[in-house]
Design goal:
Structural class: alpha+beta
CATH superfamily of the largest domain: Zn peptidases
Shape: elongated
CATH topology of the largest domain: Aminopeptidase
Strand content: 15-25%
Order of helices and strands: HHEEHEHEHHEHEEEHEEEEHEEHEHEH
Amino acid sequence: MPAMLLDLDPAAVDAAARRVMARCDELAEVSSAARRIERVYLSREHAAANRLAAGWMREAGLEAAQDAAGNLVGRTVVGPRALAADPDAPALLLGSHLDTVPDAGRYDGIVGVLVAIEVARLLRPRLESLPFALEVAGFWDEEGTRFGKALLGSSAVGGVWDPAWWDLTDANGVGLRQAFGDFGLDPDRVSEAARRPGSLVGYLEAHIEQGPVLDDAGLPLAVVSSIAGARRFEIAVHGEARHAGGTPYEARHDALLGASEAVVAVERLCRAERHVIGTVGRLDTPAGAMNVVPGEARLTLDLRGELDSARDLTWSAITATLDEIAGRRGLRWDARQVHSAAAVTCDPLLADVLRAGIATAPDAGPGEPPTLFSPAGHDGMALGGITDVGMLFLRNPDGISHHPAEAVSHQDVARGIAALAAAVAHLADEHARRP
């Protein structure tokens, strides 16, 4: 174990975990809905959550500020020895996101931000021995709930902001550019949120596993090997609207039946591939009526895979199946891609220090911790172009996420805090040994 962590107090770690759990509850009250959790980008709730988390960062000894994209960033006040020699010395970034999906749980993303703050607090007496600065980020719009485009905040930090995104609008017709201005941000300065390559030594994120693997194995923590690449599509199936009573089956061009076949085909084709997951989240008939053969049906497709190549081959198989369905039923179809993110492989060194960190965590389980790939997307996907990425998974009972029943235990949060703090120390040792 690194010498700097030999005296890490178990009581302090336990108190840190209790703060995380209590603050998850406190942030759950910051919601645009009365009886459910919903906190979206550039909203009043965004501002309120940033104020709360900024106070917690300052309490932990960090300087906290909002960046040009609305992300909250905390930085060590006490300068490590690297900063004493070079004020622009690179930093290790810890964090996750503060926004939610509609009707969310209270831990997805939020645990990672609060765990990072507690790691900074625990390491505060030892900051002078770090060979890099320490920063904590609370990213925004990782989920893409408001404007339909995920990873907006971390994309700004990663320097991959697309000017075409200014044309995005929310469900109320408010454009992204207007929302920036209404929030008090200058759209023309969003590039100031970008970090230059070399300014970070890495990005580490703790996150609940959004699946049941750890829970099924009875293990609390895992190292993430990669974050799945994702593509999202809006698909329209066009047929012919006709009278439901007067049109015989052989004369029908039922768009909803064609779309329904496509939904079943998505499941069949994706289940046949290893680590490719396809989900149709919405299916509707925009102009449908009870007594009309549907003339148009719309569906969404979320397609993700551990490897981009396998994911894209599956999309090709889906499009071929859509062609077959359309040809057989006398339909047409078209698709619009609304999101694309390449898979990100986690850095081997960061994976190694996380494994070493897990080994120091209490009751982390026997032997080598498991290594899992993440089917869910994370902010690290937008940062992979400027720095190395590593992730730590915390057990999620029953694997349920994006749902009010989402859970994590106080004990596993304590283990995650201890593991991440030890990982930072191990990484510091690795960097200190470099010439």
